[in-house]
Description:
By secondary structure, the chain is an alpha/beta fold. It is built from 7 helices and 7 strands; from the N terminus they run βαβαβαβαβαβαβα. It starts with a strand and ends with a helix.
Amino acid sequence: MKLTVLIPVYNEAKTLREIVRRVQATQLADEILLVDDGSTDGTREILAELEQQPGIRVILHERNQGKGAAVRTGIQNARGDILLIQDADLEYDPRDYPRLLQPIQEGLADVVYGSRFLGAPRRVAMFWHMVANKLLTLMTNILYDTILTDMETGYKVFRREVLDGMPLRANRFDFEPEFTAKVLKRGVRIFEVPISFNPRDYDEGKKIGLKDAFEAVWALLKYRFVD
């Protein structure tokens, strides 16, 4: 099975080369697909350089639409049998790929979530952000009768066929609850594995905020009853 590593990108000139280097160092990605969501900080010039390397493809959005829109574009254009979503900001470590892929490779799961709350090493930071994540995960478990520990994780890995007939509409960070709600409603086999986590602060460029938490709540409620 071929692996596409899908990297949504927006104004990540400081970290872009390094995250691509780390993904390449795993020697597991058959395709690295970078979807730029209207960057204005020099990211596009770096993408033009990276695109010259074998195994790297670049897609450009003409204007900023949000992470969800970039992920959906990537999903539509990915060539792999397995898709792995990788943020470009160095919070998530590609050295966790073998652990993330193992349940799918062994036929135990169709979707794997990398959980930041299962005991792997992580930077100690952002208490209230952690609280928000845990509350959203609790809400997910109540609404969808499951036992996830990290619904909002950026590390989501899945077989392509999981998406067959699944409409995805999210443009922003509500991609995480929408995707989660829809795979849970379909009874898809989900595994969680522990991952390391090195969160950046807002002064370092972190983009998700309080508004996104409210949008996640609405998405969880909405998709409990509609598709």
